[in-house]
Each structure stands twice: as structure tokens, then as C-alpha cells.
Design a protein that fits this description.
This protein is of the alpha+beta class and 123 residues long. The chain is built from five helices and three strands, in the order αβαββααα.
Length: 123
């Protein structure tokens, strides 16, 4: 996916930084969520940053297309757009951005950057 590469460039990540994006089935995502957060539920995206001693950043982003499909249907968006949104979202988490839980998340810096980058990628 070139999405992570573009976000890394737009965010001026150090040269050599890299993020892998993997799509997981719902059962696999449930297991990953439990291992990562201790929560038993299904989630849309999980991001693991792996900062390197040389300043580069490596990371893994896991996305569940089943959850993305439900969110796209609820929001009247295309599945592809929602997958792009989650890839951007996860990459921004790898870069260190975060957001509060609940309704305030859409007011966060991460959310605003995410939506701007989704629009750029949609062109």
C-alpha cells in the first residue's frame, strides 16, 4: 500500500521509515485486540510503532475489513474510502498521534490530519 508511504512523506518522517499494513479477518483481529489491549471486542485498526535507534520509524498497522465495511455502511461511505481512512489513521498512530476516546476524538489533531489526508488520497 502506498498510503502509509505518502503519509510518512507528508509528515516528514525520517528517511528509511516504513509502515506495513495488514488486513485481518474478524477472528484474527479479536485475538490481536486482546493481545494488544486486553479487550475482548472486535476493533477496526491496531497500530504498533517500532521506533529505531537511528531515528527511523517502523510500524505495523492491522485493519479489519469486516469492521470497515460496517463503518462504511453506517457513514454512507465506500468501503475503499473507509479502508484508506483506517490505513491513514493507523499510520498516524505509528507516528505518535493519539486521540481521546468518545465523541471528542473527532476534534483531535489526529482526526483532522486523517480527514485531510483521506481527501488528498481520494483525488
Amino acid at each position: 500500500m502506498r498510503i502509509a508511504k505518502r503519509v510518512l512523506a507528508w509528515e516528514r518522517a525520517p528517511a528509511g521509515s516504513h509502515v506495513d499494513i495488514t488486513l485481518l479477518s474478524a477472528p484474527a483481529m479479536r485475538r490481536a485486540n486482546r493481545r494488544a489491549t486486553g479487550r475482548r471486542g472486535l476493533t477496526d485498526v491496531i497500530a504498533y510503532p517500532l521506533p529505531q535507534p537511528d531515528g527511523t520509524l517502523l510500524g505495523d498497522v492491522y485493519i479489519c475489513p469486516a469492521v470497515a465495511a460496517r463503518a462504511a455502511a453506517q457513514n454512507g461511505a465506500a468501503l475503499n474510502e473507509e479502508l484508506v481512512r483506517l490505513a491513514v489513521h493507523g499510520t498516524l498512530h505509528v507516528l505518535g498521534y493519539d486521540h481521546p476516546e468518545g465523541s471528542r476524538r473527532t476534534q483531535s489533531r489526529l482526526w483532522h490530519l486523517q480527514e485531510r489526508y483521506v481527501q488528498r488520497l481520494a483525488r
